[in-house]
Amino acid sequence: MKHSFLPKFLTDGSDFGYLIQYEFFKNFALSILGIFIPILIYSETQSLILPGIYLLIKALTGFLASYPVMKIINRYGFRSGLSASYIFILPAVLMIYQLNIGLAVVSAVAALYSIGVTFHTESRDLEFVNGTEKKERDLDAAHLNALPNIGRLFGPAIGGLVSAWAGFSAMLLTALAAVLISIVPARKIDIKTRKKELGLKSVLSRKNLGYSPVFLSRGAQAYASVAIFSLFTYIFIAGNFASGLVRSMDTLGFMVMAYFSGYIASKFSRFRIIAVGSFIAGLTYILRIAVNTPVEAFLVSILGGLAFKLYDIPLFSDFADRAEALEERSFYTAKKMFNSFGKVIISVVFIGIAISSGEREAFNAVFIFAALSTAVMIVTQRYK
Questions:
Q1: Potential cystine with 353: which of 125, 199, 365, 373 (Cβ 3.0-4.6 Å)?
Q2: Rounded CA gap, 14 and 32, in Å?
Q3: Could you give the angle at the alpha carbon of 41 between the alpha carbons of 85 and 168, nearest 5°?
Q4: Rounded distance, CA 188 to CA 314, Å?
């Protein structure tokens, strides 16, 4: 009898298994690019303004692209959406690799990269709803948030090590290689669904808007805990490798919590888990203000990752249930739109404080804003 240490769905040729494999390699690449492109821009300019503009344009493009991207996915299918992501991400990486850093290049890279990531996330979210059963959704959400995160665990640390040893160009080539490898499993995903009508009115329906505070909060937190905290670590703590390792420690917390999430979900209500996780996450943002050493940065990142995934996995399942009950395309378009707008808001705060008060104050303002946004999640979920 053959025994395998791998979960069955990774070897049975299922669409969900191919989605996991795709997510592993894509997460590896995107986790490198997500934190090191802003760091690369800062290293060239020695100012927070251009990295802040990059983050702002990336977020604003995500907000504006969410609806047309979902229209394209709705018409041509999930696999076409995944394929389209490469059309935008690959040129973005090549541009930042080949061209001199300036406002025009930064703006173009931000827009292209954001559109590519929008195709990626909206296709993945829809595939999860259509490729899983409601009764197994919490377990499948744990798998989707745990196994592919191995790529996100090693990606930033390897990216930081490569950039410290061989420079940013080698780091970009490493990410590019992972993006290309992810094409193989992406081409094998073949979930069939019927086209459905998708209008802007349905996207902005009252029920979808009811979730907008949660979407806004998660967007703001995503920027604060990943790109902005990694940039903070690079500037004030310990350079390239430490910046990558901070993100890896965050992901380590993700993975540990993902494997315990099934047990936790069986013992407590979704609201209680989301409330506790959000509260702890809020505390970790306040703690980031006081971080002064690599060890402190690593510890707060692990705790932040644990807290984020404590509430994110039941929330991810809740989103899938709500999307299925309402209309998944309109729901996930609204999710992406407001998630991106949360990033727009925190980018404006970041740039504004950097100009008016200074770099350290800009980071502190972002962390306080992210901490306050966790309270929005608790209150909103309380009345769902």
A1: 365
A2: 28
A3: 75
A4: 28
The residue type of 261 is S
Residue ranges and CATH numbers for the domains of the chain are 11-190+200-382 (1.20.1250.20)
Assess contact for 227 and 353: CB atoms under 8 A: no
Helix 149-166 × helix 168-181 angle, to 10°: 150
Query: Using CB atoms within 10 A of its CB, is residue 256 exposed (0-12), middle (13-18) or buried (19+)?
Result: middle
Contacts of 225 (CB under 8 A, 6+ apart): 250, 285, 304, 308, 370
| pLDDT, tens only, 353-364 | 999 999 999 999
Amino acid letter, 20: I
DSSP readout, 302-318? Answer: HHHHHHHHHHHHHHHHH
C-alpha–C-alpha distance, residues 28 and 150, integer Å: 8
Encoded amino acid at 146, one letter: A
| 259 contacts 146 by C-beta, under 8 angstroms | yes
* C-beta separation of 62 from 332 below 8 A: no
Q: Which amino acid is at 147?
A: L
User: At CA 271, angle to CA 123 and CA 347, rounded to 5?
Assistant: 55
User: Which whole-number Å values give the CA distances from 34 to 58, 95, 175, 275, in the listed order?
Assistant: 11, 15, 10, 28
| Residue 332, CA distances (Å) to 26, 118, 198, 206 in order | 20, 11, 11, 14
To 10 degrees, the CA torsion angle through 14, 18, 23, 25? 150
Tokens, residue 311: 């509430």
pLDDT tens-place string over residues 88-114: 999 999 999 887 899 999 999 999 999
Residue 319 to residues 65, 100, 288, Cα–Cα distance (Å): 21, 41, 29
Tokens of 243: 């910046």
User: Six-digit token pair at 254?
Assistant: 């993700």
Coil, strand or helix at 141? helix
Assess whether pLDDT exceeds 70 at residue 381: no
